[in-house]
Write a structure and sequence with these properties.
This protein is mainly α and about 475 residues long. The protein contains 19 helices and no strands. About 70% of the residues lie in helices and about 0% in strands. It is globular and about 70 Å long. It comes from Hominiventricola aquisgranensis.
Length: about 475
């Protein structure tokens, strides 16, 4: 089984917490769903809280103190909300908020820089920080008892890899547990679509990218280099988008409306537009809790550039402590800053120029994300743009791209179609038909078959 180079899990067996696994689909999910269905309404939050902790514990069973760390985070942040809200002095209140933020981010930083990340720590840390800031701004939420808060923090559909939740978007669902058959059916549909994207598309693209890595970047032709970076771009999209759809589907099955995390980002006409569509809950988190408090765009150009730099360097660090993540964040800062200063006006007038620009910008930005070694990045760039290499040190057409292109042609074509809104529009139009149900059944069982024969990988964003 191939494992993403971005993935680290302390060598633990996490099969039960991977949504695209036999253990999860045929053991944990049906058993827990039956228990939850027959649980009295007054106890449903407690049931979800306990079940989510067991779900997390299974994933970290080889290092159970990760669960203890998670519980400490939940308890401390819950108590801190009383501490922050209990202060009437504005300066003291701000200091207490700062203490809470430092507490959370310090723990996250320790694990980031030691490269031993407990499952989901980036997601639940940012969720806790958002909670404290909301308490500071709006006052403590009176309906947030400990069980509700614990459920909000641990809810198993999202706790491992997002989306990042806000209390204001979740509190209503925590108080209202009416789940109809329509919600159950729609949840199962979204779960199946996400499963297919993960297993049938992302995993195949991961296999192609791994084959190219195994050949060695020095030995590939220019067409194969472009094929490889396109494959990685598809892999990371369908991996994370697939997970997000599965999380949304699972949430709907249990009465929760998790926020949308993707809006066809590869159709964007600028990098600014791209990051409004990609990992939308993370982007909105940085916007609301970092960018706007610093002054956002409603300030001088110099301060706006500073604000963008802070946000994008923090975004890079959120994804990892390696230098390549910082470089990746800095590259995105440069692109977004240049767009805001001049390019966005051009792209709005001539959208086709924006699409052409993004055809290059998207895979090149992911290249820094995918390869951590600076020497290897430069070698790959020379393969992409052979005029940068010394004469005779590159190959335009070695025939290698034909071999891999034929092997993965169907998956590549499917990826090109599925990054557009067209398939979803067709699905919504024929959603109630027998053919729609039949297609989803085929996707589900073919995905299960692929998982059964070992063609499955951990989600890439488990690494964050």
């Amino acid at each position: 089984m191939w494992a993403s180079p971005l993935y680290t899990s302390d060598e633990q067996d996490i099969s039960a917490v991977v949504f695209s696994s036999i253990d999860f689909l045929f053991k944990f999910l049906p058993i827990f769903f039956v228990i939850y269905m027959f649980c009295p309404k007054a106890w449903k939050n407690l049931c979800l809280f306990a079940g989510s902790l067991l779900f997390y514990l299974y994933g970290v069973k080889d290092t159970p103190w990760y669960l203890a760390l998670f519980l400490v985070s939940i308890i401390v942040n819950y108590r801190m909300s009383f501490w922050i809200d209990g202060s009437l002095e504005p300066v003291q209140k701000k200091r207490r908020l700062a203490a809470g933020v430092i507490f959370n981010l310090s723990i996250l930083a320790v694990f980031k820089f030691t490269h031993r990340l407990p499952l989901g720590i980036s997601f639940y840390t940012f969720q806790a920080v958002g909670w404290l800031i909301d308490v500071y701004r709006e006052g403590r939420m009176q309906d947030a008892n400990f069980v509700k808060f614990g459920t909000f923090m641990t809810l198993f559909p999202h706790v491992i890899s997002g989306p990042i939740l806000r209390w204001k978007d979740t509190s209503r669902d925590l108080s209202r547990k009416n789940r109809g058959l329509d919600a159950l059916e729609n949840g199962l549909r979204e779960l199946t679509i996400g499963l297919g994207m993960k297993v049938l598309l992302a995993n195949q693209m991961a296999d192609l990218w791994e084959k190219i890595r195994a050949v060695g970047y020095e030995s590939i032709s220019t067409p194969l280099a472009w094929l490889g970076i396109v494959a990685f771009s598809f892999e990371i999209y369908f991996d994370f988008y697939g997970y997000s759809l599965m999380a949304i589907g699972l949430g709907e099955m249990f009465g929760f409306h998790l926020p949308k995390n993707f809006q066809y980002p590869y159709m964007a006409t600028s990098m600014t537009d791209f990051w409004r569509r990609w990992h939308m809950t993370l982007g909105s988190w940085f916007r609301d809790y970092v960018y706007i408090p610093l002054g956002g765009s409603r300030c001088s150009k110099g301060k706006m550039i500073r604000n963008l730099l802070v946000v994008w360097l923090l975004t890079g660090l959120w994804h990892g402590a390696g230098w390549n993540f910082l470089l990746w964040g800095f590259l995105l800062f440069v692109l977004v800053a240049v767009e805001k200063l001049c390019l966005l006006k051009v792209f709005r007038r001539v959208p086709i120029l924006g699409h052409v620009y993004m055809i290059l910008a998207i895979p090149l930005s992911w290249l820094i994300f995918a390869i951590s070694d600076p020497g290897q990045i430069w070698i790959y760039v020379q393969r992409l743009f052979p005029f940068l290499a010394a004469a005779g040190r590159f190959s335009w057409f070695a025939g290698d791209y034909l071999k891999y292109g034929k092997m993965y042609l169907i998956t590549l074509l499917a990826g090109m179609i599925l990054i557009t809104p067209l398939p979803r529009k067709l699905y919504e139009r024929y959603k109630g038909s027998m053919w729609s149900a039949l297609v989803l059944i085929l996707i589900f069982w073919f995905s299960v078959y692929c998982i059964w024969i070992g063609q499955d990988d951990p989600f890439m964003y488990f690494a964050f």
